[in-house]
Design goal:
By secondary structure, the chain is α+β, with helices and mostly antiparallel strands. It contains 10 helices and 15 strands. It has helices at 12-17, 24-29, 32-35, 72-82, 84-87, 141-162, 168-181, 224-234, 241-258, 289-297; strands at 50-51, 56-59, 62-65, 95-100, 103-108, 112-114, 117-120, 126-128, 133-136, 190-197, 200-207, 212-214, 217-220, 265-271, 277-285.
């Protein structure tokens, strides 16, 4: 028996081979030694985490103050009812994806906000899960990035165990199952999951309430309403790749002009029907694109746009 009270002969691989690996109960019921193989080694006082009586956790120069509650997870769930305004974190983004005859086109902006504060203008909101699946980021950046990368690990484990890659539907169900396990724990996710397998390209929407929808067109984020306005007017299934790229860029640019929480650059990805994806545009500045689109409409702004030329 080691210093933590668990047998030293528990193989760490059994923990990861469990079918429930990654779910909430998995981490709470598994012995510490199975999660951390070298847990039998004594921790030096310098590197130890100090949990003091006044609910402070000190580690590596940081000090985290906790609420005086025995169950922190339950407290987070109760805060939604006790103090709903405290849990309403203002976020904003614009991400969209639509299916067409050439696969799936994904277009996103690059602005990160913390309430009214613009914290970054170069965020990568398309998460490259693996060589055949992409995910988008809307909501909490950490939640989206961590769990979609976790699904990437699960896909790789599935491939090693079964000798074949999981389908996009299976991968999206992995993420949806995780969201169901952590429902009510404060996660913030509204992601589009798209990829290409033996059946071609497909598109799913998944959020932190464990909603999973398959569709042909989604726009997620605070600027999604404005993006839908452009997509509803010009989207059709038989778009060429060039037309699809232009439509995705136009929809994002329109949203960034009208939504203060969206902006930065436009990134465009194309998921093919052949089992892979490619980057079409990595960064297109939106600053001037809106005015180029408006100039192309040839609107005068005085109500005489539709009159014959001789009266203009």
């Amino acid at each position: 028996i080691n210093d933590f009270g668990y047998g030293g002969d528990i193989p760490a691989c059994d923990f990861m081979d469990d079918d429930n690996f990654g779910f909430a109960d998995c981490f709470s019921k598994t012995p510490l030694h199975a999660i951390v193989p070298n847990a039998s080694e004594k921790v030096s006082p310098e590197s130890a985490v100090d949990r003091t009586d006044n609910m402070e956790i000190k580690s590596d120069g940081f000090c985290f103050k906790l609420h005086p509650s025995e169950d922190q997870a339950m407290l987070q769930r109760q805060l939604k009812d006790m103090a709903p305004k405290m849990m309403d974190v203002n976020k904003g983004t614009t991400t969209l994806a639509f299916q067409f005859q050439g696969g799936v086109l994904v277009a996103v902006d690059a602005r990160a906000t913390q309430g009214p504060f613009i914290s970054s203008g170069a965020v990568r909101k398309v998460i490259e899960v693996n060589e055949f699946i992409l995910g988008t980021m809307a909501g909490g950046a950490a939640d989206c990035f961590f769990w979609e990368k976790y699904v990437a690990m699960q896909c790789r484990l599935y491939q090693l165990r079964h000798g074949v890659r999981p389908s996009v539907a299976q991968a999206s169900m992995m993420l949806c199952s995780i969201m169901k396990q952590y429902k009510g724990y404060g996660l913030s996710m509204g992601t589009m999951f798209t990829g290409s397998d033996s059946t071609g390209a497909s598109l799913y929407y998944i959020d932190n309430d464990a909603t999973r929808l398959r569709g042909n067109l989604f726009a997620v984020g605070s600027g999604g309403t404005f993006a839908y306005g452009v997509l509803d007017s010009e989207y059709r299934y038989d778009l060429t790749i060039d037309e699809a790229v232009k439509l995705g860029i136009k929809a994002i640019v329109s949203a960034t002009f009208k939504d203060s929480a969206s902006g930065g650059v436009v990134r465009v990805y194309h998921v093919t029907n052949e089992g892979n994806w490619r980057i079409v545009h990595d960064q297109i500045d939106v600053s001037e694109l809106h005015y180029q689109f408006e100039a192309a409409k040839k609107h005068r702004g005085d109500g005489r746009e539709n009159q014959p030329a001789k009266f203009v």
